[in-house]
Amino acid sequence: MNKDELLGLLDDADVRKKILAIVNQQADDVQEPIPETIKVESQRADRLLAEVDPWKQKFDDERQRAKILQAELKAEGKRADKLQREVDTWKEKFNAERRRADKLKIDGDAWIKQYEHQQRRANELQGKLETWIKKFNDEQERSEKLQKDFDDAEGKLSRLEDFNRGFELYQKYQGVGSHAQQLLSAGVFTRNDFTSFICGGAQVNSLETIWDVWRECVMGGKNQDAKILCEVFMYCLGLVNASKVQASYSILPVKVGDPFDSDIHVEAPGSRAQGKISEVYLPGYRNNYNQRIIKKSIVKVG
Fold first, then answer.
1. Is 287 in contact with 249 (CB distance < 8 Å)?
2. Domain architecture of the chain: domains with CATH
3. Which of 19, 40, 99, 302 has the most CB atoms lying inside 10 A of its own CB?
4. What is the pLDDT of residues 255-272, one digit of tens each?
């Protein structure tokens, strides 16, 4: 039976009475089933909402980590907040339309027109929601890129500061006595220029030589030379650590009042046979990778 034949039956008075009786009998206690297409759209909407929440959490975490971003990053964070509010607004509109669609009742041609209208509306809102989610994701990627650029800039600034610090020490090193410079020129600073100062100081073997000359200045009472060589040694220790993947070196912890330990300390002239450290002349250092002590700390016991 086609549509025209079905509509023709509605002209029959008995048929209309029968339909009216059925409708009156079931109107109060029967609710028409929800169409399958609406259920499908509801499920799709739930999945969309489930996808939005992880991104929102991830965005909130990123904003917390990016507190130190410069003005442009803060502006992007505000823009992302605005996008999130717009996403939430469209989500609420989508949910409202879905609830309206759930409440629709089947009522012949009128229901079909209303359902099709709501279906188009739901599709439209879904498209807008996907658009805002994409914008949100784009802003998230931009925020991550800005964070990476900021970190790279900080790294470059740190390297520049290290370079400036090295040049300052190179200039100070020119004031070290000729004897100490002669000892270091043999295997560390082979030429009297800044490049040789940096390249030579970054070698692992250079650390022992610099430390030995530093010790000679300390024990010989050349305090000014010792002070400069202390700074040079600490700087070169940092250069070596920055150039190694596994092996790294650190200063041995030692302070006045510590008990003397022959495994990590060496007694300076004038020390007592036993007791606690009364003066630290020179701290030693060790290889952190294998825990081997390269140079013991020189201390006075008394």
1. yes
2. 34-163 (1.10.287), 174-243 (no CATH), 248-302 (2.30.22.10)
3. 302
4. 999 999 999 999 999 898
